[in-house]
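Tokens for Nitrogen regulatory protein P-II. Go.
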Amino acid sequence: MKFISAIIKPFKLDDVKDALLNIGIDGLTITEVKGYGRQKGHTEIYRGAEYAISFLPKIKIEVAVPTDQLDRVLEVVTEAARTGQIGDGKIFVWSLDRTLRIRTGETDENAL
């Protein structure tokens, strides 16, 4: 099993969620986060004063998948989240040793 964490632009969330549902991924967790990478934030003017915004709003999507579905999930998330502009985000993948569904006691891939 693999654990995927994807940092994307907020307005791409529905596209990514729909793409995952279309390939049979039923559950995911999202978190509103802030960060920066090569984008380095931007400046805004508020009431005539200019100030720098270093950390930009992003969405972190977390999903656990069977190893045999990893490549397909990475493909659809990449396609759905891509705008072609700087700040599209990143995807991180970890090995997942164990999963347990609390309600039923199911483990590993049965718990996904």
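Helices lie at 13-22, 70-81.
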